[in-house]
Amino acid sequence: MRIFDPHIHMSSRTTDDYRRMAAAGVRAVVEPAFWQGQPRTNPGSFTDYFDALIGWEPFRASQYGIRHHATIALNPKEAGDPRCRPVLGLLPRYLAKDGVVAVGEIGYDSMTADEDTAFAAQLALAVEHRLPALVHTPHRDKARGTRRSLDVVAESGIPPGMVLIDHLNELTVGLVRESGCWAGFSIYPETKMSPPRMVAILREHGLDRMLVNSAADWGVSDPLLTRVTADAMLDAGFSPDDVDRVMWRNPVEFYGQSGRLDLSEIAEVSPTFAGSSILRGGS
Amino acid sequence: MDAGLPAVPDGTGSPGVDQTEAQLLPDVPDAGWLAEARARVAERPETVGRYFAAAGRQVGRAPLADAPGWHADEAARALLLAALPPGRRAEEAGELYGHGDAGEKRAVLKALPMLGIGAAAVPLLLDAIRTNDTRLVAAALGPCARHLDQPAWRQGVLKCVFMGVRLALVHDLAERADAELATMLGALADERAAAGRTMPDDAITLLRSLTREV
User: Fold this and answer.
1) Is residue A235 included in any domain, yes or no?
2) ∠ CA A169-A173-A174 to the nearest 5 degrees?
3) Domain total of chain B
4) Confidence band (pLDDT; 50, 70, 90) for B7?
5) Cβ neighbours, 10 Å, residue A96
6) Inter-chain contact B102–A259, Cβ cutoff 8 Å?
7) CA–CA separation, A282 vs A279, rounded Å?
8) Is residue B118 part of a domain?
9) Interface pTM (ipTM) of the complex?
10) Is residue B208 domain-resident?
C-alpha cells in the first residue's frame, strides 16, 4: 500500500514519526504552513518557518524515503494580526519554489473582515502563480464558514478543481461536492473525523475528488490514521485499487496541478509490491 | 542527528569536481532557455531570483554525463550566477543562498569556485556547515573551503565524520589535515568505542595516516 498524506504538519512531529509512517506505507506528504500554537509577532518568524518547510523538513523526510512538499500562506489564525500581515508581501518569493505545490492553508478562523482580505488576496496569488489552493474551514461555526469560503472561492475566479476545502464532515461535505472543489477530511483520534465515519462518507459520496489526511500536528493527532482509514476501507469491502485511488492517485492529481510535484525518487515503489510486503505484515 | 539513520545523501554521486563555466555550459538541457536567462541576468542582475527558482523545472534534475557530481538544475543555477556582472556576484549569491530552498542553497555552494568572490563566500560556508543537512555540509567543504580558517575547516571535517558524509567529498583533505584534526578524530573514535559504536572506514583510514606522520 502506498499512502500520500495531503495534509500533515511534520515540523511539529518527531523523526520517529517519519520512521513509523514509512513502515505504514506513507511515501509522500504535503505540509501546509499553519499556526504554531504560539502566535508569531513578526514576519521574520514566518520566513524562518517557511524556510524550514522547503529546507530542513524535506531533508528529514527524505531519509525515510518520504517525499515532502509544502504549501505556503499566511494562515487564517494569524491573518488578522497587523504585525503578521506584511507576510503577504513575502509570499511570492516562496510561491516560486520547486517544493511549493499550493497556496495554503488559507481561509477563515473567526470570519473577520481582516480574514476576508487575506483570504481573497491569497486566492489571487494562487491564480497568479497558477497554483492550487488549500482552504482550511473553521472549527467554530463550520457550516457557515464553509459556505462563505465557497463564495469567496467562486468570486476569486480560481477554477474549483484547483481548490481543496479541508477538514470537512457529514454536514459540510455536500456543499463542497456541489461546488466542484476537492473535499478534504482530517482523521483525528477524537475530533474532526474518524475512520468509520470516513468510510461511510466515501460510500455515500464516492471516491472522486476526495482526499483523506491525518492533519497531524502538535495537538492530539496521529500520523498513522491515514493507514488506519485505508485498512478500514478494505475491511468495509473497498478494493485495493479504491484505496490506492483515495490514498495516492487523488492527492497526486490534485497537487500535480501545480506542475511541481516531483515523485521521481519514489516512482519505482509499485503499489502491489508495497502492498504485499507491508499491507498485512504486522497483523 | 546521530548515526542510525537509514541514508546519508550528500547530493552527489562522486567527489565534487571543480567545474568551470565552459565545461558545464554544453551539458545543460534546454540550452535556449538558459542562454536567454543568462543574457537577461547579465543585463538586469535583480531578475536572477526568478530564473534561479525556476531552473530545476526548466532544465530538469538529471545527473550530467560529462560533469561528475553535477545535476542539471545545479549546473543551470551555477551558470546563472556566473552570468552576473562580477561586481554583483557576491551580493546575489548571498541573497539567493539566504532565501533559497535546500536545492538552491546547494547550487550556490557548488557554484562558489566559479564566481571568484573569494572570502565573501565564508559566511555561506559557515552557515551550511552549521546545518544538519548532509548535502549542504558536503557542498560547503568543496574547493571554496580554502577560505575557511583551520579551526572552522576542522569542525567541518569532523562534522562530516559525525554525520557519515564521505570524506572523499572534502577538497584538499590530505593536504590540509593536521595534528589537531587527528586529535579531534581520535577523541571521537574513543567516544564511539566507549559506546560500542564504530567510526566510518574513511575516517579510520584518515586517522591512521595522520597518526603515523605524527
Assistant:
1) yes
2) 140
3) 1
4) low
5) 18
6) no
7) 8
8) yes
9) 0.87
10) no
CA–CA distance, B212 with B204 (Å, rounded to integer): 12
- Look at residues B152, B150, B151, B64 and name the one whose alpha carbon lies nearest to residue B110: B64
What per-residue confidence (pLDDT) applies to A264? 87
The tally of domains found in chain A comes to 1
The residue whose grid cell reads 583533505 is B173
C-alpha cell at B110: 557548488
Q: Does any domain span residue B138?
A: no
Enclosing domain of residue A272: 3-278
Q: Could you tell me which chain A residue has the CA closest to the CA of B55? A: A98
Q: What is the pLDDT of residues B85-112, one digit of tens each?
A: 999 999 999 999 999 999 999 999 999 9
Q: Does a structural domain hold residue B119?
A: yes
Examine residue A283 and state whether it is found in any structural domain, yes or no.
no
Sheet containing strand A3-5, strands side by side: A3-5, A26-32, A67-72, A100-107, A133-136, A163-165, A182-186, A210-213
- Answer yes or no: are the C-beta atoms of B147 and B22 closer than 8 Å: no
- For residue B34, give its domain range: 21-132
Instruction: Kindly report the CATH number assigned to the domain that includes residue A46.
Output: 3.20.20.140
Whether A96 and B54 lie within 8 Å, measured CB to CB: yes
E strand or H helix at A150, and its extent? helix A142-156
**Among all residues of chain B, which has the CA nearest to that of A90?**
B99
| Per-residue confidence in pLDDT tens, chain A, 283 aa | 999 999 999 999 999 999 999 999 999 999 999 999 999 999 999 999 999 999 999 999 999 999 999 999 999 999 999 999 999 999 999 999 999 999 999 999 999 999 999 999 999 999 999 999 999 999 889 999 999 999 999 999 999 999 999 999 999 999 999 999 999 999 998 887 899 999 999 999 999 999 999 999 999 999 999 999 999 999 999 999 999 999 999 999 999 999 999 998 775 544 443 333 332 222 2
- Dump strand ranges (E) for A122-203: 133-136, 163-165, 182-186
Cα dihedral A77, A82, A88, A91 sign: negative
Which residue type occupies B123? P
Q: Does B211 touch chain A (CB under 8 A)?
A: no
Q: Which of A96-110, B42-56, B61-75 has the lowest mean pLDDT?
A: B61-75
Report the chain B residue with the minimal C-alpha distance to residue A51: B101
- Cα(A152)–Cα(A116) distance, integer angstroms: 8
In chain B, residues 55-84 whose CB comes closer than 8 Å to chain A: 56-57, 61
